[in-house]
Hints:
Layout: E1 12-14, E2 28-33, E3 36-44, E4 49-54, E5 60-63, E6 66-69, E7 72-76, E8 79-83, E9 86-88, E10 129-131
Antiparallel strand pairs: 1-2, 2-3, 3-4, 4-10, 5-6, 6-9, 7-8
Amino acid sequence: MASAGQLSVGAVRRLRHEGPSYLFKPVLQVVALDDAPNALLLSLSDSQHIAVASVPRESAVIEHDLVQLNDWQVQWHQDVFMLQNATISHCGHHNGVIGNPIPDMEREPPARESVMFSTSAPQQLQVAPTPLRNLPAAML
């Protein structure tokens, strides 16, 4: 596994990218470490910081371009974002997002609707925001 010093942008494989303007903002990006298959990273599209968590395989399904997180929560700065049964999949030419359901005319199989974060989520936090360069090796 990579240590904090070895972790770099090159070691991060982006699975999702920011979508069009009609989607909720800011968009949470989901990335995965190439050398830490059980760890998923959540990041705001306009921030240098990321939230990190180790996701057990039984609660995260990674299949082709599909990443599914069930009842997973993340803290970001002073706001709380909750992903409830959020399904992230390829959605047409938009390349996959967490946000509003993509209109039918924009869809390409196997696009699935997803649930965006909520700032009214319960104060049950599992993850704190951490700069990428300061990731402890134990979290990876």
